[in-house]
Description:
Blueprint: E1 2-3, H1 15-21, E2 27-30, E3 50-53, H2 56-64, H3 74-83, E4 86-87, H4 110-123
Parallel strand pairs: 2-3
Antiparallel strand pairs: 1-4
Amino acid sequence: xxxxxxxxxxxxxxxxxxxxxxxxxxxxxxxxxxxxxxxxxxxxxxxxxxxxxxxxxxxxxxxxxxxxxxxxxxxxxxxxxxxxxxxxxxxxxxxxxxxxxxxxxxxxxxxxxxxxxxxxxxxx
Length: 124
């Protein structure tokens, strides 16, 4: 995602231009403290132009402020996409990183059971 106010926002609907400009754009990255040695920039770059933030809320605000770009959960920013405040970068290359979800085995409440059923229904 990129803020519509960002100086390079014009590349949002131009995949070739977006990919060519990626190296110049600062990436906003949420630190993953659960695993050491893994940065969560999801393959955007490895050039060191990153701003690490503590959580997704800070990441959304940094991107909205035009500080950089980054991946964001669509359900968290759908209204910002509708309003045009954030734009989706039309990149042709997709990340091939695996993602995982985990929880303590001792937490087997009704909420976790419902979540597990939903995940199985969606992802098989």
